[in-house]
Amino acid sequence: MFKTITALYVEDEEQIKNIVSSLFGNLFARIIVAADGKEGLDQFNQLKDEIDIIITDINMPKMNGLEMCEEIRKINTSVPIIITTAHNDKDFLHRAIKVGISDFVTKPMNMEVLLNSLKKNIEPILLQRKLDKQLEQHQEERLRTAKFSAIGQLAAGITHEINTPLTYIKASFEMMGYDIEDLPDSKTKDEIVKNISRIKDGLFRIENIVGSMKEMSQQSKMEKESSNIYSTVVISAILAYNKIKHISNVYINDEHFSLDMDKESQTYMVDIQKQRIEQVWVIIINNAMDELMKIKDFNDRRLDINISSDETHINVIFRDNAGGIHDDIFDHLFEPFKGKKESSGMGVGLSIAKKIIADQGNASIDAYNEGNGAVFKIQFTL
Length: 382
Hints:
The protein is elongated. By secondary structure, it is an alpha/beta fold. The protein starts with 5 loop residues before the first strand and ends with a strand. It folds into 3 domains: 6-122, Response regulator (Rossmann fold, 3-Layer(aba) Sandwich), CATH 3.40.50.2300; 150-219; 220-382, Heat Shock Protein 90 (2-Layer Sandwich). The strands form 3 sheets. The chain has a 6-stranded mixed β-sheet with strand order 8-7-10-11-13-12, with helices on one face. Strands 2-1-3-4-5 form a 5-stranded parallel β-sheet, with helices on both faces. A two-stranded antiparallel ribbon has the order 6-9. Helix 10 (274-292) runs antiparallel to helix 12. It has 12 helices and 13 strands.
């Protein structure tokens, strides 16, 4: 699983360095070796965009491991750092935690413990790469379809050209926001958070305006195809993963959603415009996340997505526990510009979702409150 990973290994003891470097050489795509902290820092400065993980000793000449890590953290706050050490005193551990060390492996090193530590720290990197690749593939597929369907329609063409960079700006901005949340409390942080809130509101408003213009400016001629509804739900959850992972637990047919969920493990086939239906799922998931984030404790938030079928219908039900739909907007829920959710911009998402469902010709959408949350039910006629 490490064959796409580049590692920086810093160790001054020649015998240990040779043994471990040989092991790493068989594990990683590339291993960069340094003999002390200064050389390790120089290597990182030169190759910071390529290095995925750092394994370092502590007691070394010229610059020790912790000093090197402190300098690296000024450049990169997220690269995993594993230290190998014989230290176990509280002062050392406190300093290491303050620096942002990802894990400790005590000397003399147990190779099984080291490998387990590497696996624990590399798995999130590989999952994020998988997500990025899936997002890129899906974006490319949507881009090709949008270009064909928007030919001759000036408005659709313009909104498409805006939407592509907007997607990357919004994703990068959201990730930056999560990093800022981890900063120590201060007056400066409070001001940054206030400014971010204003910018985020503007981005959501632009995104929803662009999305509504694109959807409303074209009569979609996308061909319907036999598609697995379960697969479309899993793909849409993957697309929304960067938001989901910070806000709520999500369950699909009672299975906890994860990036490696098998999207073909269950089958519910129906003729639909696949990409447009995935857009509906993303809209409903994002609406649920916006409401669930108002609940204080992450573990108290939950979104259940259930897919079922009988002889004549396939039903997809989204059920959250965020308190339900407010009475004053219930009758206008699917009308544009009627929403009151602070993070939902112009309030056109659900109107677009209803239009897409109506365009299928074999589907309907309904919303109601049940228990302590909102329910969206989409039914496809077979």
